Amino acid sequence: MITLNLDKIMKVKGVRLKDLAEKIGLTNANLSNIKTGKIVAIRFSTLNALCKELDCQPADLLTYVPESN
User: Does residue 38 lie in a domain region?
Assistant: First the structure.
């Protein structure tokens, strides 16, 4: 399972959801869904914009967690 760490990165960087959404061209609702992990896919263009704006790598935002059987 892939988990998203956007909330952690935003907290570390001191970035507010509204400001980040505006800078990368997403609605607050869409960015909130990404932040809370309520998505099943993310566009590379969105991932690129997040990494650029947050000055981070994709691995900072995404983590693989093996599922328990």
Answer: yes
